[in-house]
Amino acid sequence: MRHSEFWRSVETVFGPAYGRSLVQDLVVPALGATCAAALEAGTSPGLVWSALCDEMQVTQAQRWVFRVDPRDRGHRGHRGR
After folding, report:
1. CA–CA separation, 18 vs 29, rounded Å?
2. What's the pTM?
């Protein structure tokens, strides 16, 4: 996962304002720090995203949202119609 995918996932799953607040303020026990501090310390964005997902108990679909091409999101479920 790239940093850009991390931030896109945060904003998609939690919303821009709440997502940034979580990253800046929530201490994630698995990281021993906030997500922002872990990223600054060099922790991979994928590990940070996984820890945040575990802490916030997101669904599997939300956890893997960064794997979905943003151009395809609006077309899901509409193929074959």
Report:
1. 19
2. 0.81
